[in-house]
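Hi,

Apologies if this is the wrong queue. I'm a grad student, and the batch job for Lytic transglycosylase domain-containing protein from Sphingobacterium anhuiense produced an output file that my downstream script rejects. I'm not sure whether the problem is my script or the file. Here is the sequence I used:
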Amino acid sequence: MFRKKVLCCSLILSALVLSKLYSNPNTIAAGDDKIITVKAPSNLSNGEDEKEKNEDNDSNNDHYLSSLTFANDTLPINRPHVESKLLRYFKNFSFKKRGSYSLHKKAEAYLPQIEKILASYGIPEDFKYVPLVESGLDRGVVSSKGAGGYWQFMPATARLYGLKVNGNVDERRDLTKSTHAAAKYIKSLYKQFGNWTLVAAAYNVGGGSLKGSIRRQKEDSYYNLKLNNETGSYVYKLISMKEIIENPEKHGYTRYANRTDQKDPNENML
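Support response: The file is valid. Your script probably expects a header line. Output copied below for reference.
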């Protein structure tokens, strides 16, 4: 009788152990009848993949920003305000914000001619984006202060660099003549400042005003100078304009970037 009871208890104990093993798929048996729990890594793995993906995106973005230049000068991307301003104007010039391909169409039509003229004066090609920022390459734009034409010359400055501006003629509206005048003006600014980034700022605010800011602040880096809002943003606008034209796919202009024939006159890109 005693043997029967012992045998019965052993069978019951074995059944309980086996039941425990098969009821938990995340356990395995090891030596000495020990039960080892195996943790499923799937959830953790998904989280780690997402983290790595975000880190890769951040790394790619940092690499892209650090590769940006203006007139062959690198940008101090390590300064937070520089990065934030660039990202702001990338957003402002993006397709999502503008919803139009008009800037790219105008760039395609006019920039090759502008670039050729600027090159003849030894001016970096990045300055070809000035009229895109100044007037959107619309010769009819006139500012509240009287600046007009593609390059937004004031009448007195236009005349100083050889353009006719009177009641009958306004050569600020002539792309070729106004670009030659702008090239002469830009060259004169370079003689004063010896730095292309400062030349761009001076084009916006005027050489005398920029010299005064440099003298008062004892600072000759555009990225460190405290300037009015328009001038303090001007170079960032030029760089952002350059990037959306040269790298349209990065800023939402995918239909333009993917066109097989960018000179198809029957395609409506507006």
